[in-house]
Specification:
The complex is a heterodimer.
Chain A (H helix, E strand, L loop, with lengths): L2 H16 L26 H12 L18 H13 L9 H13 L2 H13 L4 E4 L15 E4 L3 E12 L6 E7 L10 E7 L5 E6 L8 E12 L3 E2 L5 H17 L11 H8 L11 H30 L7 H23 L15 H9 L9 H12 L7
Parallel strand pairs in A: 1-4
Antiparallel strand pairs in A: 2-3, 3-7, 4-5, 5-8, 6-7
Chain B lengths: L6 H17 L2 H9 L8 H9 L17 H15 L5 H15 L2 H12 L5 E4 L14 E5 L2 E12 L6 E7 L10 E7 L5 E7 L5 E12 L4 E2 L6 H34 L3 E2 L2 E2 L4 H30 L4 H27 L10 H13 L4 H11 L3
Parallel strand pairs in B: 1-4
Antiparallel strand pairs in B: 2-3, 3-7, 4-5, 5-8, 6-7, 9-10
Classes of the chains: A alpha+beta, B alpha+beta.
């Protein structure tokens, strides 16, 4: 047996022994997915234990270096772990912006001290990180951001306002883009700093969305003191870091179209809701072809994720594909929920009532509308593809 | 299996690209059309393809071929899509070869495969009896007679029908039109008594023909595969044809897209390159994204064909449906973004659009494959 085969066998055995049954059920509600942090209320003991046993091995961040608490696994081993988790429908033990965004940036750009301070806590799910990027007047045009960060000798002083901060009221720390040089051209005067959300001067206020939920906040920053050692990378290097982080965010958001093994297929939804098949086919033949079209599109999308991974490994990739995947993946996820609500008819639009899961589907459907806005709108992704990949855009 | 080409497949792709762009670019198809060529393909070019080994890519080594597989052949087909090279490659080297590999007796393989490899035999596959692909709607009959059969009926839109030495046609030995069971395939000499072949010209300037079979007598060994049980063979040929047509259409899509983006970098209006306008940039970027999606499903389907994957038919139909969508989009946008010049015969873009539409129809259009995809998943 090769080393990898042995690793797979051991991993399979360990997961079987350690992944609680309740952590293999489909994620239905927000709390089913553990975000960690000091304010997190575990839905049950299983969720807590699953996080702890995985974090102990560093498998919440399997491919991060072991010296900072990560799993220290190779790319191949990480893939095997993911496959084995997928095989038994294991939920990710931890889902956070620490893992998907600031962690990778700290590993690439952070000082040794910053890595030692923050990475182990990210791996263990101790800190909930939120992202301070967008501002009321700087959404797509992010590089125009105006939150000021002044050098006060032994510390920085931050003033401004952020918006669309995910779960800011539950978050422990923020990674925040600030303007450190107001005179430089806009991309060149930005830095990335970290601070505790309990620092005096930080105030959050939730924003109610069309889904009825409030996952996002406005965050007001008034004379917030930030320690100088919480600067990530160099001063005015923030845009490079932000772009690096956005690549990770795009991959994460684009991936939402990906369906888990345990998730019910669209056509199964249609069969169940429409009360079965007529002569082996969905009675609504137009719906049948709409569903087939979507299922083919999502298959092509998932195969494209796979192909791009394989090309990267083989060193033949063309790069700059995260924008394409974000664009395609989010549009497909929106279509999925349009079809799902459509299949369920008016019941799919129910807003309240136990019979309708308290309007869960409708709120999920509405939430997907943000997928093609957050992390750079679809239009921004198309701009990036046009300019960086196709070389369009010179004025004459 | 990794969704990337191996070294040999990459070399074959590069060699096909080099050969076709030099010896058989779109201007060759244009010339064949303008001269109203009798054969509809360039014999010298085909001979060179044979010498390059392309006619034997799918033929087992035991019968003189290269046994290089469908991923390899797919690369040649994709490059053919970029140059619109007219040749018997699909009809003979892909479809007839696959049919004989799948269902032929040892005797048939020995007699026919080496002759395909050396280029001495050309084939055409006739399954349609109408303008839409409905392979079970077979009215043509094969009646047992003595040791063999007598064939009667018609076949429509048979690609390469008028240049083929041998025709592979479906005919019913029992049942009624629409039944899956009761259909057999037969190999018929194109010069046999009772065979009439009438060439038809389609928009793509490639070869197509109508066949009329009147009391064509065949020996028993002219039958390819089981009597009355050709369903699985036809199903397999549907998969093979659509995966290779998809590769060709992927080549068409990429070529039209690249030419269009190039034009956007050359053409100025209102004092600026049209490629600097966001309304057009986004349309180009959308096409880029769609072509990337198509590439992945094409290579996956090709690998499934080589591996005889249980999901083969599902992937073949997904592949043709997706690629048809993409090539329709890209050829339409190709004309539109070229503007007035895109409507002229002088520009090649129209050739690509015309070929795309014919290939989209062959062996099932996108709706046919959407429905097949749904049926294969029992909904």
């Amino acid at each position: 047996m090769s080393d990898l085969e042995q690793f797979r066998a051991q991993t399979r055995e360990w997961l079987e022994a350690n992944c609680p049954a309740s952590q293999r059920l489909p994620v239905m509600e927000f709390e089913d997915r553990c975000w960690g942090g000091t304010k997190w209320c575990f839905v049950n003991e299983d969720q807590k234990r699953w996080l702890e046993v995985m974090a102990e091995r560093g498998w919440t961040a399997p491919d991060w270096p072991a010296e900072y608490g990560g799993g220290g696994l190779s790319k191949e081993e990480t893939k095997i772990l993911r496959e084995e988790m997928y095989r038994i429908d294991a939920r990710p033990p931890l889902f956070s912006m620490g893992l998907s965004m600031i962690g990778p940036a700290l590993l690439k750009y952070g000082s040794e001290e910053l890595k030692r301070q923050h990475i182990p806590n990210i791996v263990k799910g101790k800190i909930w990180w939120c992202q301070g990027y967008s501002e009321p007047n700087y959404g797509s045009d992010l590089a125009g951001l105006q939150t000021r960060c002044e050098d006060k000798g032994d510390h920085f002083l931050v003033n401004g306002q952020k918006v669309w901060t995910s779960y800011a009221e539950r978050a422990d720390w923020m990674f925040c883009l600030v303007r450190t040089d107001p005179d430089a051209v806009k991309h060149a005067g930005i830095s990335l700093v970290l601070f505790d959300m309990t620092t005096p001067g930080v105030r959050t206020s939730p924003i109610k969305l069309i889904s009825g939920n409030s996952p996002f906040c406005e965050t007001f920053l008034d004379d917030v003191r930030v320690e100088k050692d919480q600067l990530v990378g160099n001063i005015n290097q923030g845009w490079e870091l932000a772009s690096y982080l956005l690549t990770h965010e795009r991959a994460m958001i684009g991936n939402m179209g990906h369906t888990a093994a345990s998730e019910k297929s669209l056509h199964q939804h249609a069969i169940d809701v429409a009360g079965g098949l007529e002569n082996g086919q969905l009675g609504d033949s137009a719906l049948r072809t709409d569903i087939a079209q979507w299922e083919i599109d999502i298959l092509a999308f998932e195969l494209t994720q796979e192909r791009i991974d394989d090309e990267t490994k083989a060193g033949t990739g063309t790069g700059a594909t995260s924008s394409m995947l974000k664009y395609a993946g989010t549009e497909l996820n929106k279509q999925r929920f349009e079809l799902l609500t459509d299949i369920h008819g008016q019941a799919g639009l129910a807003w309240e009532g136990e019979a309708f899961d308290d309007g869960l589907l409708a709120s999920q459907w509405l939430r997907t509308k943000g997928n093609s806005i957050e992390g750079g709108t679809s239009e921004i992704q198309l701009n990036i593809i046009s300019k960086r990949i196709l070389g369009l855009g010179q004025k004459a | 299996m990794a969704l990337v080409l191996n070294e040999e497949q990459t070399m074959l792709k590069e060699s096909a690209q080099g050969f076709l762009s030099e010896h058989a670019p779109v201007s060759q198809l244009r010339q064949l059309r303008d001269e109203r060529s009798e054969t509809g393909y360039d014999k010298a070019t085909w001979q060179q393809m044979v010498e390059l080994g392309w006619s034997g890519i799918l033929v087992p080594e035991a019968h003189g071929g290269l046994a290089f597989g469908h991923v390899g052949m797919g690369q040649v087909m994709e490059e053919n899509g970029r140059t619109l090279t007219a040749s018997p490659l699909l009809s003979t080297a892909v479809l007839a070869t696959s049919a004989i590999n799948y269902a032929g007796t040892e005797t048939q393989k020995k007699a026919l495969l080496p002759a395909i490899v050396d280029g001495s035999l050309l084939f055409a596959l006739g399954l349609d009896e109408g303008p839409k692909y409905r392979p079970s709607l077979v009215k043509a009959t094969a009646t047992a007679s003595g040791e063999g059969y007598v064939l009667n009926g018609e076949k429509q839109f048979v690609a390469d029908g008028h240049i083929a030495d041998k025709l592979i046609v479906s005919a019913r030995t029992s049942g009624d039109a629409g039944d899956d069971q009761g259909v057999s395939l037969f190999i018929v000499d194109s010069v046999a008594s009772g065979v009439e072949i009438e060439r038809v010209h389609l928009a793509d300037s490639r070869n197509s023909a109508m066949l009329r079979l009147t009391h064509v007598t065949l020996p028993a060994d002219a039958r390819l595969g089981e009597q009355g049980g050709a369903t699985s063979l036809i199903n397999y040929l549907t998969d093979v044809a659509n995966i290779h047509l998809s590769a060709e259409l992927l080549g068409v899509s990429q070529e039209v897209f690249e030419r269009t983006v190039q034009y956007m970098k050359e053409r100025s209006q209102y004092g600026a390159l049209i490629g600097s306008y966001q309304a057009l940039q986004h349309r180009a970027a959308h096409m880029f994204s769609e072509i990337e999606l198509a590439k992945s499903i094409v290579i996956k389907a090709q690998q499934a064909l080589d591996a005889n994957d249980a999901q083969l038919s599902l992937l073949a139909s997904a592949c043709k449906a997706k690629v048809s969508d993409v090539v329709t989009l890209v050829t339409n946008e190709g004309v539109q973004l070229h503007g007035g010049i895109g409507m002229t015969d002088e520009l090649d873009i129209g050739f690509f659009m015309k070929r795309a539409r014919v290939a989209e129809q062959q062996f099932g259009d996108r709706r046919y494959h959407l429905k097949r995809f749904a049926s294969l998943q029992n909904y």
